[in-house]
Amino acid sequence: MTSSQLRRTFSLLRARTGNGQTWTRSLFMDSGSSSSGLVLQSQSTDVYQNLALEDWIDAHVDLQQRSILLLWRNGPAVVIGRHQNPWTECSLSAMRRLGIPLARRRSGGGTVYHDLGNLNMTFFASRKAYDRQRNLKVVTEALRRLRPELDVRATDRFDILLNGRYKISGTASRLSRRSSYHHCTLLHSADRSALSAVLRHSCPGIQSNATPSIPSPVTNLVDHAPSLEWEELLGALVQQYTREFDLRPASTAVDPSNESSFPGVGSLAAELRSWEWTFGKTPKFSIKTELELMDEQLDAHCSAHLHMEVKNGQVGSCRLDVPADWLPLQLSSQLSDVLVGERFCPHRAAAAVTELLRSESGQPHTRLHNLCEAVLAVIG
Amino acid sequence: MLAVTRGSFRVFRLLLSQQYRRRCLRPQSVRPIRTLQNFKWDRSLQTFSSRTLHTAVAWRGPIVQFKLSDIGEGIMEVTVKEWYVKEGDKVSQFDSICEVQSDKASVTITSRYDGVIKKLYYDVDAIAFVGKPLVDIETESSSELIQEEDVVETPAMAREEHTHQEIKGHKTQATPAVRRLAMENNIKLSEVVGTGKDGRILKEDILNFLAKQTGAILPPTPPFQEIQTPGPAPTPATTASAAMSTSTPGAVRPPPKTPRPVFTGKDITEPIKGFHKAMVKTMSAALKIPHFGYCDEVDLSRLVVLRSEIRSVTEARGVKLSYMPFFIKAASLSLLHFPILNAAVDEGCQNITYKASHNIGLAMDTSQGLLVPNVKNVQLLSVFEIAQELNRLQALGAAGQLGTAELSGGTFTLSNIGSIGGTYAKPVILPPEVAIGALGKIQVLPRFGADGQVVRAHIMKVSWSADHRIIDGATMCRFSNLWREYLENPACMVLDLK
Q1: Which among A106, A337, A372 has the least Cβ separation from residue B106?
Q2: Which intervals carry biased composition (Low complexity) (chain B) (predicted)?
């Protein structure tokens, strides 16, 4: 590094201890040369904070003159694309059991499982400079330099395949009026068993036009190159990035929870955590399924039909066709009634149906309870 | 002024319209003047006077076909995923119109023009083509920025003001929803400080502006002026805080700091749905039960001492200990002596079922509303185990994750309304149960001790309600006395603990 580069890095580091805001200003507005880029590493492993940081950079930083690479990773989380349906993409009950949160990102694409063994890279650029293949070339070239024996190639669907078969990276991007960002994952050492436990559907019988994910066999880099360390991988990627874009390296650690450095990032994260964003933004869908009902005391069975329309994550309409000799029509229609207008969530529905059950007793109560359980199982 | 016949009206109207077009200032609202059609032309022209000169004849501006611009990377078609506008909405430049997706890229399309959306070319999930029209926007008749004359502020003028949204050539940016909110409240956007990107005005800015000037924003109509003058009767909270109020400072007690509903000036009617609908049914059924109430007060001084002594022990075990586990356990011990209070009756009150398990419900205030999860089989649990279970239920309640297992099967309920406030209450029995207790807050009050001296006592009021069809006052009274004794002398509880 030349002395001027050293001086600049040190001044950045010194400035960081002062007012957070002036530091950010100097970081983003430092126009040492028009070809200066930035490499940022997030210190947070909270998926919502990191996604909020992406949004913040996209909204507040002038990307016409510079490009930015953001490196980040999260604790275990499932991240779905902007227009996807969480009930088809992941098993919400398994995630609840394992304590894995769900996040919806603003870019398109499919569902991914993140954990600390998965590296995320976001390439920020101006709208004109948006070029996904070039960004992926950074990754493939870096890996080629590190471990030349691995066959790593980007496909025309912007995935990166290892040995022609296993997917080690997926891509998604977001284009705004003047800026763009392209982010991709990279599986270094993720927990594959947790991945397969959560990436399966919650409810059967869903019909929707939401973007479907295309499942692919995946593998970790460490399964094929056991000696590859995390820090080594990061270093190689940063180096290749600066080489590809002819930039001067200036890597800085950033804290997405620092409100003074990134004013407004807290409210961006809060919006990403909200139910209205995560579930309420699901494109409308319908569920049509058969329910198996049984009465244990009389050892009797029956089949019922459920049809629900869900819009903005809330039940818009619900139709329950239960034979009238099994349960009085009035009760099954009351059940449909209380489900309408509630969020499509087993807990919200549980609260409503348990209230309904209070007014019944005896055989209608047992059968209604059984019906409620069957409906709640469908909701997941 | 003009002696015109009906026939020549059309020609005349055409001439006048062109004259207006040159003089009018970027009107955004279309105000077709129906009065042009009749003989009252002269009079109506005069009454409209200054107003018409500024807005009025917004004969349609050119309709622009906004084409889908190039996405990049040679992409020719995208899927429309979400519309942010609908036909008839007003948009400004840079407002988001829709979200499209192409090949893992999500793109926000923003408007290039100001105007009104006239037509959407695609439905959600349809394929849109690059270079083909996406929406039709009706722009204003003239595109250059026009200075607005200074106008006298009257309510009608204020309306026109909003539709222009321009002061001296400076454009105030705000989404259609924000503009509507401002217009409904007669706020000039030029007075609001925008905190969004590029000085854009956000909904929060309007609400902050409203909060600062609660009194001043209402239109100056006579009824309002009466409210403004300070009267002997207590003024409503909103006007009391108005800047113009001249009432003496101490006369009106400052309103409590509860989240105040923002005044938007309109009644809103919506159907009762979902969980609340189920509550309507439950509460209607509950009030068919003939309730009787019985209240008492409990001296918890000894319990307070006991709890402070063992709190450290429970916290070492990782459990927060409140007073509720004691109340619940005491109730269960008492129910063993009065099983009729832990019973259920059927619809027509024909049969009574004495429930074996004491599943004691706990009224919980959650974001969804009043939920009553219950602790199962309290007769088998120790105070510590009850505390653990309470912790678990509270965590689930806070996370909105209570399920049917927790919410159903209750046989008796306690409502700790005192944690929020209150002394005596009149709780409503939750069917199919037959009794319920509401606990007030614990207050430190003076009472006479054993030796006749005044001592500090921790007093809590309890209010029971029971189904008078099967439970009589004496039973309730004896149950309450036993419960009270366990709590006033926790040592007795130790004797009878199972």
Answers
A1: A106
A2: 236-251
